[in-house]
Write a structure and sequence with these properties.
Blueprint: E1 27-29, E2 40-46, H1 56-69, E3 78-82, H2 86-98, E4 101-107, H3 112-120, E5 124-128, H4 133-147, E6 152-154, H5 161-178, E7 185-189, H6 194-206, E8 211-217, E9 246-250, H7 252-266, H8 272-287, E10 291-297
Parallel strand pairs: 2-10, 3-4, 3-6, 4-5, 7-8, 7-10, 8-9
Antiparallel strand pairs: 1-2
Helix pairs in contact: 1-2, 1-5, 5-6, 7-8
The protein binds pyridoxal-5'-phosphate.
Length: 310
């Protein structure tokens, strides 16, 4: 199925599959919040427009495809992983569409919206202690898998190369196409790090001079859903700390403020990690006189409406 903006040039198909709606997201120009500099452009990849509402649709699709291709995921297996929500929603959507069962280990402080969405797709959820964060969920998923390895396909998004590779093959490639190869700076938050590592490697393969900026919360106890404080967390196996030219820290308060601004001044109702990415991208924009900065807005703000910061 073609997206609307492709319609003018291509034949419209009416029999598209769910997978055909994942990816090929628009690259949005951020105009009102960007500094008024004639030679600085700021763009955000609108990953909240994926069908599951987040960038994680891409990783989940790639991980399940890879598992099926390698014969590890097949009829009768239950998909298992730890997730703070978005990857779980993506797995749940795809598992339902392919007829697989799904079991997720989720920290109990996940927003109620996410839990309701997961349950609507029929996922089985095991809540883990909020104080243990996403690491507690990871440890529980490992325990479940070790106890019954034959029953589960352990998707393991933190250590699965299919995660970053799909961003190399799809998201990174799209950013090069959508900017006509003009991108000079790339800014993205670190969760599993799949987005940053995959896109970063793709952009570097195109031009070794592209400046890569990774974004983390500034403390272990933070409110930036989806991002990890790498120094204090279980480090994802796919994370490559040598890739970034700069690794910046953003406070929860700054991420909240930028998220509010995106809704009020750009008309973009996105999640808190988008606010963190914007704050870091604005810091880059404020110190250069020329360049094309691209960042990623990972998920929709409708998943955070019960939060009080709005
Ligand atoms: C809201 C949100 N932002 C950012 C990320 C980070 O993406 P990645 O896991 O590719 O590093 C995630 C990952 O779950 C997320 O849910």
């Amino acid at each position: 199925m073609q997206r609307v903006n492709d319609m003018a040039t291509t034949t419209l198909e009416f029999s598209g599959s769910l997978r055909s709606t994942i990816g090929r997201t628009p690259l949005l120009r951020i105009r009102r919040l960007a500094p008024a500099k004639p030679h600085v452009e700021l763009y955000a990849k609108a990953e909240f427009l994926n069908p599951g509402g987040s960038v994680k649709d891409r990783a989940a699709l790639a991980i399940l495809d890879d598992g099926e291709r390698r014969g590890l995921l097949r009829e009768g297996k239950t998909i298992l992983d730890a997730t703070s929500g978005n990857t779980g929603i993506a797995y749940a959507m795809l598992a339902a569409s392919r007829g697989y069962k799904l079991k997720l280990c989720v920290p109990e402080n996940v927003t109620p919206e996410r839990l309701r969405i997961l349950r609507a797709y029929g996922a089985e959820i095991e809540l883990t202690d909020a104080m243990d964060g996403s690491d507690g969920a990871i440890r529980q998923a490992r325990r479940i898998h070790e106890a019954e390895p034959d029953r589960y396909f352990y998707a393991d998004q933190y250590n699965n190369d299919a995660n970053w590779r799909t961003h190399f093959d799809t998201t990174g490639h799209e950013i090069l196409e959508q900017t006509d190869g003009r991108v000079t700076h790339f800014v993205a938050g670190l969760g599993t790090s799949g987005t940053f590592v995959g896109i970063g490697r793709r952009l570097r393969a195109h031009d070794a001079g592209i400046h890569l900026v990774s974004v983390q919360p500034d403390s272990p106890l933070h409110g930036v859903e989806g991002l990890k404080h790498m120094d204090s967390a279980i480090r994802p196996g796919i994370y490559d700390p040598t890739l970034a030219d700069e690794d910046v820290r953003i406070s929860t308060e700054r991420a909240y403020a930028a998220t509010r601004q995106l809704a009020l001044e750009e008309g973009l109702l996105v999640g808190v990690s988008s606010g963190a990415a914007l704050a870091a991208a604005l810091d880059v924009a404020s110190r250069i006189d020329q360049g094309v900065i691209v960042t990623v807005f990972p998920d929709t703000g409708t998943r955070y409406l019960t939060e009080t910061f709005w």
